[in-house]
Specification:
The protein is mainly alpha-helical. About 80% of the residues lie in helices and about 0% in strands.
Length: about 120
Amino acid sequence: MKSLKEKENLHVVFWLVKDFAWLMHFRELGMAMALPTIALSIWITWKSFRSSVADFYHNLAISCWIFGNAIWMTGEFYFNDEIRGVAMPFFGAGLVVVAYYYSWIKARTPKWGED
């Protein structure tokens, strides 16, 4: 793949397949898709660190969210939904990351909407 945008699009496909597998209770497919979804999300976040402050914070929030989502899915599949509490801090972290970006970083940018 040549561009970051192509990898972002592939990441969305992985995420959708993972969530579809979760919805349909396809344990093996869901778990198999969780790892590449998380890995690609982290890679995209790392790459965006060098190119765009806005993209970095949004991608970091997405990575937190997907990690929490994968923990929740794993708990539903294998632990009778007893580890949902382990997933909650990751969802919270994603919200904190975007709240920090919008309240601190973007609010102090001279021209709203530009990095």
